[in-house]
Write a structure and sequence with these properties.
By secondary structure, the protein is of the alpha+beta class. The chain has two domains: 93 residues, no CATH class; 100 residues, Double Stranded RNA Binding Domain (2-Layer Sandwich), CATH 3.30.160. It is 44% helix and 14% strand. The chain has a three-stranded antiparallel β-sheet with strand order 1-2-3. Helix 5 packs across helix 6.
Length: 202
């Protein structure tokens, strides 16, 4: 958010942009002051700024193949006492990562010619009662037996999973199975106390 204000402050002004982005102007001014004077940064931010060049140098010196573990070990060998989680966090901020073994799995194959589904809720994921709005997605998990795909359906009001399925292949059927499970289970559940059962589905 602050970066957006930095980029467009000369065109739109700080106060209007802060109002539109719901940022306190005083918080943005503190951010701008810290950019001008590094001494105003917190002790952690100052230490991060000092560590990041070393992390980047170690990563580059080792052919850009080291991950957080090896960068951390090398830095400690060089006398830079730093926690492993700090190295991992700063490498993520710098966009650095080590070489990963194993086969790369392509989970999404985009088709620019395919019609794009309509956003029927306008990115407003809110509900006033159970079963009013469900959202679904699927992800993938690496296991010893190979890649598994997990589809799930979430009731936005309850914020809990109401249907899910696992499959070894990424097909439409297992996603629909998760939806069918959610529909079946919700039809079997008695209405919650104080909430009337709705005759209609999500």
């Amino acid at each position: 958010m602050y970066r957006l204000v930095d980029e467009h402050r000369d065109v739109h002004g700080v106060e209007p942009m802060c109002r539109a982005l719901q940022i306190a102007p005083s918080a943005y001014r503190r951010h701008a002051a810290r950019l001008r004077d590094a001494q105003l940064l917190s002790a952690r931010a100052q230490r991060d700024a000092a560590l990041m060049p070393t992390i980047e140098r170690v990563w580059n010196d080792n052919l850009q193949v080291y991950g957080a573990d090896k960068v951390w070990l090398q830095m400690n060998r060089e006398g830079a006492a730093v926690a492993r989680c700090t190295v991992e966090r700063l490498m993520r901020r710098l966009g650095l990562q080590g070489v990963k073994r194993g086969k790369v799995v392509r989970t999404t194959v985009g088709d620019p010619k395919a019609p794009c589904p309509l956003d029927k809720v306008n990115r407003q994921f809110c509900a006033q009662r159970p079963n009013q709005l469900w959202v679904s997605d699927f992800t993938y998990v690496s296991t010893w037996q190979g890649w598994l795909y997990v589809a799930f359906v979430v009731d936005v009001f309850a914020r809990r999973i109401v249907g899910w399925r696992v499959s070894s292949s990424m097909t439409t059927d297992f996603v629909l199975d998760a939806l069918e499970q959610a529909l079946y289970d919700r039809q079997q559940e008695p209405p919650a106390q104080g909430i009337a059962a709705s005759p209609s589905g999500p």
